[in-house]
Design goal:
Oligomer: single chain
Number of strands: 12
Number of helices: 4
Length: 188
Protein backbone atom coordinates (compact mmCIF):
# COMPACT_ATOMS: atom_id res chain seq x y z
CA UNK A 1 0.00 0.00 0.00
CA UNK A 2 1.29 3.46 -0.88
CA UNK A 3 0.71 6.40 1.47
CA UNK A 4 0.52 9.81 -0.20
CA UNK A 5 0.76 13.00 1.85
CA UNK A 6 -1.58 15.87 1.03
CA UNK A 7 -1.39 19.65 1.39
CA UNK A 8 -3.07 19.38 4.82
CA UNK A 9 -1.07 17.88 7.68
CA UNK A 10 -2.37 14.49 8.75
CA UNK A 11 -4.67 13.78 5.80
CA UNK A 12 -3.37 10.85 3.75
CA UNK A 13 -4.42 9.21 0.50
CA UNK A 14 -3.90 5.46 0.51
CA UNK A 15 -3.37 3.65 -2.75
CA UNK A 16 -3.63 -0.15 -2.55
CA UNK A 17 -1.36 -2.34 -4.63
CA UNK A 18 -3.52 -4.68 -6.68
CA UNK A 19 -2.39 -8.22 -7.46
CA UNK A 20 -4.56 -9.59 -10.19
CA UNK A 21 -5.09 -11.82 -13.17
CA UNK A 22 -7.99 -12.85 -15.41
CA UNK A 23 -10.02 -13.89 -12.33
CA UNK A 24 -9.90 -10.52 -10.62
CA UNK A 25 -7.57 -8.97 -8.05
CA UNK A 26 -6.56 -8.87 -4.39
CA UNK A 27 -5.49 -5.71 -2.56
CA UNK A 28 -4.69 -4.98 1.07
CA UNK A 29 -6.73 -1.92 2.06
CA UNK A 30 -5.89 -1.70 5.76
CA UNK A 31 -2.95 -2.77 7.91
CA UNK A 32 -2.57 -1.39 11.43
CA UNK A 33 1.19 -2.02 11.20
CA UNK A 34 1.54 -0.13 7.88
CA UNK A 35 -0.53 2.77 9.23
CA UNK A 36 1.59 2.95 12.40
CA UNK A 37 4.74 3.08 10.24
CA UNK A 38 3.26 6.23 8.64
CA UNK A 39 2.37 7.90 11.94
CA UNK A 40 -1.28 6.87 12.13
CA UNK A 41 -2.15 5.58 15.59
CA UNK A 42 -5.94 5.49 15.19
CA UNK A 43 -7.60 2.17 16.00
CA UNK A 44 -10.79 1.76 14.02
CA UNK A 45 -13.68 0.43 16.11
CA UNK A 46 -16.78 1.02 13.96
CA UNK A 47 -17.57 0.67 10.26
CA UNK A 48 -20.36 2.71 8.64
CA UNK A 49 -21.86 2.13 5.20
CA UNK A 50 -23.65 4.81 3.16
CA UNK A 51 -25.60 4.81 -0.10
CA UNK A 52 -25.85 8.21 -1.78
CA UNK A 53 -28.03 8.93 -4.82
CA UNK A 54 -27.69 11.64 -7.44
CA UNK A 55 -24.70 13.35 -9.03
CA UNK A 56 -23.80 16.43 -6.98
CA UNK A 57 -25.38 15.21 -3.73
CA UNK A 58 -23.38 16.70 -0.85
CA UNK A 59 -22.99 15.35 2.68
CA UNK A 60 -21.17 17.55 5.16
CA UNK A 61 -19.13 19.28 6.15
CA UNK A 62 -19.54 17.64 9.57
CA UNK A 63 -17.39 17.02 12.60
CA UNK A 64 -17.76 15.51 16.04
CA UNK A 65 -16.73 17.75 18.94
CA UNK A 66 -14.47 16.35 21.69
CA UNK A 67 -14.57 14.01 23.44
CA UNK A 68 -16.22 12.34 20.42
CA UNK A 69 -13.89 13.70 17.70
CA UNK A 70 -13.33 10.89 15.19
CA UNK A 71 -10.47 9.86 12.97
CA UNK A 72 -11.92 8.39 9.76
CA UNK A 73 -10.88 6.12 6.94
CA UNK A 74 -13.12 6.71 3.91
CA UNK A 75 -13.36 4.42 0.87
CA UNK A 76 -15.78 4.54 -2.06
CA UNK A 77 -16.73 0.95 -2.93
CA UNK A 78 -19.08 1.85 -5.78
CA UNK A 79 -19.28 4.93 -7.98
CA UNK A 80 -17.18 8.01 -7.23
CA UNK A 81 -17.06 10.96 -4.83
CA UNK A 82 -15.12 14.17 -4.31
CA UNK A 83 -14.00 13.87 -0.66
CA UNK A 84 -13.09 16.95 1.40
CA UNK A 85 -11.35 17.35 4.77
CA UNK A 86 -10.96 20.78 6.44
CA UNK A 87 -8.46 21.27 9.27
CA UNK A 88 -10.32 22.88 12.19
CA UNK A 89 -7.64 22.18 14.82
CA UNK A 90 -6.74 25.52 16.41
CA UNK A 91 -2.97 25.85 16.54
CA UNK A 92 -2.39 23.56 13.57
CA UNK A 93 -0.04 24.92 10.89
CA UNK A 94 -2.67 23.93 8.32
CA UNK A 95 -5.66 25.35 10.26
CA UNK A 96 -8.43 26.38 7.86
CA UNK A 97 -6.89 24.62 4.85
CA UNK A 98 -8.71 21.88 3.04
CA UNK A 99 -7.80 18.89 0.93
CA UNK A 100 -10.10 17.45 -1.72
CA UNK A 101 -9.63 14.24 -3.68
CA UNK A 102 -11.62 11.92 -5.90
CA UNK A 103 -12.25 8.50 -4.43
CA UNK A 104 -13.71 5.88 -6.76
CA UNK A 105 -14.46 2.19 -7.05
CA UNK A 106 -12.10 1.88 -10.03
CA UNK A 107 -9.04 3.20 -8.13
CA UNK A 108 -9.85 1.75 -4.66
CA UNK A 109 -8.04 4.70 -3.05
CA UNK A 110 -8.92 5.57 0.54
CA UNK A 111 -8.57 8.80 2.50
CA UNK A 112 -7.41 8.91 6.13
CA UNK A 113 -8.74 11.92 8.02
CA UNK A 114 -7.46 12.53 11.58
CA UNK A 115 -9.66 13.67 14.47
CA UNK A 116 -10.13 17.44 14.42
CA UNK A 117 -11.24 17.77 10.81
CA UNK A 118 -14.57 18.66 9.26
CA UNK A 119 -15.44 16.09 6.58
CA UNK A 120 -17.79 16.03 3.64
CA UNK A 121 -18.16 14.79 0.09
CA UNK A 122 -20.06 15.27 -3.15
CA UNK A 123 -21.09 12.43 -5.46
CA UNK A 124 -19.57 12.31 -8.93
CA UNK A 125 -21.68 9.36 -10.10
CA UNK A 126 -25.44 8.57 -10.11
CA UNK A 127 -24.95 6.42 -7.00
CA UNK A 128 -22.08 5.95 -4.60
CA UNK A 129 -21.48 3.52 -1.74
CA UNK A 130 -19.10 4.56 1.01
CA UNK A 131 -17.43 2.64 3.78
CA UNK A 132 -16.26 4.84 6.63
CA UNK A 133 -14.25 3.36 9.48
CA UNK A 134 -14.16 5.51 12.60
CA UNK A 135 -11.89 5.45 15.64
CA UNK A 136 -14.51 6.31 18.27
CA UNK A 137 -17.88 4.65 18.76
CA UNK A 138 -20.74 7.10 19.13
CA UNK A 139 -23.57 5.42 21.00
CA UNK A 140 -25.67 8.57 21.11
CA UNK A 141 -27.14 10.29 18.10
CA UNK A 142 -24.10 12.09 16.65
CA UNK A 143 -24.10 15.81 17.18
CA UNK A 144 -22.30 16.60 13.95
CA UNK A 145 -22.02 20.30 13.26
CA UNK A 146 -22.22 21.79 9.81
CA UNK A 147 -19.63 24.25 8.65
CA UNK A 148 -20.92 27.03 6.40
CA UNK A 149 -18.26 26.41 3.75
CA UNK A 150 -20.19 23.37 2.48
CA UNK A 151 -21.66 25.06 -0.61
CA UNK A 152 -18.37 26.79 -1.51
CA UNK A 153 -16.33 23.59 -1.25
CA UNK A 154 -18.96 21.52 -3.05
CA UNK A 155 -18.96 23.92 -5.97
CA UNK A 156 -15.15 23.89 -6.20
CA UNK A 157 -15.01 20.12 -6.77
CA UNK A 158 -14.88 18.39 -10.15
CA UNK A 159 -18.65 17.88 -10.40
CA UNK A 160 -20.46 20.22 -12.79
CA UNK A 161 -23.81 19.51 -11.14
CA UNK A 162 -25.62 21.98 -8.91
CA UNK A 163 -24.97 20.83 -5.31
CA UNK A 164 -27.88 18.97 -3.67
CA UNK A 165 -27.83 19.71 0.07
CA UNK A 166 -29.96 18.73 3.05
CA UNK A 167 -31.60 21.59 4.97
CA UNK A 168 -29.13 21.09 7.80
CA UNK A 169 -26.10 21.21 5.52
CA UNK A 170 -27.41 24.26 3.63
CA UNK A 171 -27.89 26.32 6.80
CA UNK A 172 -25.43 29.22 6.75
CA UNK A 173 -22.93 29.30 9.58
CA UNK A 174 -19.95 31.56 9.89
CA UNK A 175 -16.66 29.63 9.70
CA UNK A 176 -14.68 31.98 12.04
CA UNK A 177 -17.48 32.13 14.62
CA UNK A 178 -17.91 28.35 14.63
CA UNK A 179 -14.23 27.47 14.94
CA UNK A 180 -13.24 30.30 17.29
CA UNK A 181 -15.08 28.45 20.06
CA UNK A 182 -14.12 24.95 18.93
CA UNK A 183 -12.29 22.95 21.60
CA UNK A 184 -10.50 20.97 18.89
CA UNK A 185 -6.72 21.27 19.08
CA UNK A 186 -3.87 19.98 16.97
CA UNK A 187 -2.40 17.01 18.84
CA UNK A 188 0.95 16.94 17.04
Amino acid sequence: MNFLETNVRGVLILVPIRHGDHRGFFAETYSQLAYAEHGVDAVFVQDNHSLIRGVGTVRGLHFQAPPHAQAKLVRCGRGAIFDVAVDIRRGSPTYGRWAGYSLAQRTARSCYIPAGFAHGFATLSPTARLSTNVAIITRQKPRARCVGMTRKLASSGPSAAQPVLSEKDAAPRCWPALTAHSPLRDKR
